[in-house]
Amino acid sequence: MRAKITYFVLAAVLVVYFVLVGSRGVLLIRQGSVVTVAYGVAVLVMPFIGAWFLWQTTRFARDANRLARELEAEGGLPVDELVRTPGGRIDRDSADAVFARRRAEAEAAPDDWRSWFRLAVAYHDARDTPRARKAMQRAIALHDQRAVRSSPGR
């Protein structure tokens, strides 16, 4: 719950920042000279890029949480079986062993979103965030594809 509150507070701060930057861009454009109009347009592009990135990140988190809830309802969430150091950090060898099993599951069932979800969690535990994100994106795509295929009228 704390992570959600932090996320929404930071998102709200970003939106306020986008509005402030956008207003400065409009003011620069209103100045009317070639240089200020060029700067104004450049400044206006930044909030749009930031808003797009914020939207994509929010959508990704929402979709990943939707899959987690569905997997939890099925009783298929991965069990935390990782060994931890006295400080609470995940032991690297333990994470590697779990990762190897999860990777083998995903290779055995490449069209199963559940195995890709569990692989994403294993990547995350192994501190490989880019691959964790790609595996979760694959899980989301496979899940949504399955939902589209099984819907009536298709």
UniProtKB/TrEMBL annotation:
Transmembrane portions of the chain? 7-29, 35-55
Q: What is this protein called?
A: Tetratricopeptide repeat protein
- InterPro entries in UniProt: TPR-like_helical_dom_sf
Q: Is Transmembrane helix there in the keyword field?
A: yes
Sorted alphabetically, the keyword list is: Membrane, Transmembrane, Transmembrane helix
The domain of life for this entry's organism is Bacteria
